[in-house]
Amino acid sequence: MTVARVIMTDEAKAVVDKLRQQYPALIFHQSGGCCDGSAPMCLEKDDLILNENDVWLGAVHRCDFYMSKDQFEYWQHTQLTIDVTKGRGASFSLEIPLGLRFVTKSRLFTEDEMNDLSLTRLASEQG
Question: Per the confidence metrics, is the pTM higher than 0.85?
Answer without folding.
Answer: yes
